[in-house]
Amino acid sequence: MRRRDALSLLAAGALLPGRVAGHPTPPEGDPDGTPPTRTDTGYGPLARIEVEGATEAVVSDDGTTAFVAATTGYAVVDVSDPDDPAILAERRDLLADREGGPLAGIYDVKLSGGTLLVVGPANPGQSDLSGALVVDVSDPKNPDRRAFYETDYPIHNCDLEGDRAYLTANEGDRRALSIVDVSDTPTEIGGWSLRGHDERWDDLAPYPRTLHDVFVQDGVAYLAHWDAGTWLLDVSDPAAPTVLAHVGRDPETVVEQYESGDDGYDGLPGNDHYAAVDEAGDLLAIGREAWATEERPEGGPGGIDLYDVSTPESPTQLSTIAPPPTPDATEEGVWTTAHNFEFRDGILYSSWYRGGVKRHDVSDPADPRELTWWADRHHAEFWTARVAVPESTFVAASRATGSAPAALYVFPDADGETTWGFGNDASTPTSAETPTATGTPSRVSTPGFGPLAALAGVGAGAFAWWRRRDRP
């Protein structure tokens, strides 16, 4: 769990001055047949460190420390030396002494100053205990549990701005946002619900209007509500949030398309999975996590759409960043659909599961330009990409695959491309211009809501969560 992989070093002109990098050696007897002594050509990770159960990751303001959600807990990783990351602290079996504990299914963490928010379970059935753990990480080596806010709903994702926590609250018919003051004893101080805003959404089943994620900046919350679209809320008064804009279809259209089979929970259109804005709040990105099905092969994979929201009341779509190619875009196939991302200084850092990580120049958002693409389809399935030190490093968390354990990678914040597994020969780095993917490896699922429990009368909403048990 704490082993740092030895790197085969290769001088790389495309990297930062004085920097060398190589690909960590794959496991012995790797079933995909990849040579055990390969190195990246021109661009590759500086290092990776195994973190069991890794999912989301966030980085401290100074770029030296990464905090990783790790399914059964969280880890604090020192990335100040990008060639030699080290685990500073690791906490597992959280709140095991509480009734229903420990807290499990931890897929998300968020950081604000010296406070870390750890939430779970992501999905029903992963833990009998649900809630948000507030941790003082002002000393990263010694995280100190400050408080716990227990909920009657699972928390798939969250955000933290100052002393306000923003929680996804999906349970039964409720698909809502909860706002909690965590400055002292955690207390709910507000919230917002789609149905409370517009009762026409009552006609849509709960799961396609799920609040999947929330991003908050400068008092505006960006809610990715799956097929119900993305909502921009003014949350400066948490007791009375007001809608600034809605990006998506009207409720009658969604209901009609969903009931007619022209839409589906798994595929496009819709599937607003994650939304975030740039530092100025003028450029909005909406990632659409989607898969193809036999009935709707055009349903996936999903990309990232860019919108001008400089006038929040009038969002205007500017462009779409397409997902990496895949030979099988279904849930059972090779996942290359969009996942989490971050804007920084005119660059969009994005993750695409088996499709790797990318950097795009979005200074002209109508014409985004790909700068970086690194993928290792058999050994890495990226959940997020986050800036560490601008113009130096960024980090990306990969969950486990059938060939490699979960890990946190450190990449140079530089241009380049190496795409293992997206060419005719998986052992050869290939260009992105004419990729032809090779065979599909087995996938290790993140622990989730098992089929026996799903069949035991858990209801339609929970069953939908089970169908997506190893999705973020």
Automatic annotation (TrEMBL):
It holds the Pfam family LVIVD. It comes from the Archaea. Signal peptide: none annotated. Residues 17-42, 312-331, 420-448 are annotated as: Disordered. The chain crosses the membrane at residues 448-466. Residues 426-448 have a biased composition (Low complexity). Keywords: Membrane, Transmembrane, Transmembrane helix. This is LVIVD repeat-containing protein. The lineage of its organism: Archaea, Methanobacteriati, Methanobacteriota, Stenosarchaea group, Halobacteria.
